[in-house]
C-alpha cells in the first residue's frame, strides 16, 4: 500500500540505506495487509509490511510468523468529514453516522469498530459502515454518500486542502502507542538468513531516525513519492504524521504498542492474541540496529 505512513521506508530507499546495507529492495504494493502477508506465506516475498496481527494469526494456526520491526507506531487514521466540522471528543458521538473504511481485517476498519464497541455502540446497528478499496475511503464522503471516512495520509490533507474537508478525530491521539504496522516474515527465513534480516531492519532504522532528525528531507522524499500531489499538501501530510508520532522513531516493537494491538484483535475476535510477546516479536535485530545507527 502506497501511503505516507510508510515514510520511514521511503526515506530509507531514497537515502540509499538499503544499498548501503547490501540489500536490493524490490518493493510492490499488495493491495492490502492480508495480501502482503500471503505473499510471504506463499514464498513470493521474504518480508511484508502491514498489520502485524497477521503474524500472530499465523502463529496461532501453527505457522511460523514473526515480527522483526515496527514501522508505524500509532494508528495512522483520522476521521475526515465534509458535513461535520466540530471535532468529536468521544466515539459515542459517532452514533447514527455513516462511515467509510477499507474492508476487514484492514486496520482502519478495526480501529473504528473497536472504538465503537468501547463506547458502548453496536457497529452493526448504531452506525452504518461501508467498505471500499484501500485508499479510496474519502471519495464517498466528498460525494455526499457518507458522513465520515476513516482515512490516512496523504488522502487526509488532500481532502482538507483541496475539498474543504475537516479532520474531526485522531485515532493516533485516542489510542496512543499502537503497533499499527510491522515488518513480518517467517521464523524459518530468519533462522536461515539472519544477516539479511539484520540488514533489512538496520536500513529501516536508519530511515526512521532520519525522518525525525531531518523532517525537511522526509518532506522532500514524500514529494518525490507522490509527484502528482500539490507539494503543500504533501508537506502538511508529513508534518501531521510527525506531530502525531505516527512513523516509528525507532524500529524496536514497543511492548505497550503490541499489547494495544493484541487487545484490539482479541476484542474484535480477529485472534486469540495470546502468543507471548517475546515469542512472536524478535526485537534483537532492531536493538542491534538502533545501537549501530545511533549518532551516525
Automatic annotation (TrEMBL):
Source organism superkingdom: Bacteria
> Would you indicate the residue range of the signal peptide?
none
> Which residue windows are coiled coil?
none
Q: Which Pfam families match?
A: NMT1
Residue ranges annotated for the SsuA/THI5-like domain, each copy included: 7-218
Annotated protein name in UniProt: ABC transporter substrate-binding protein
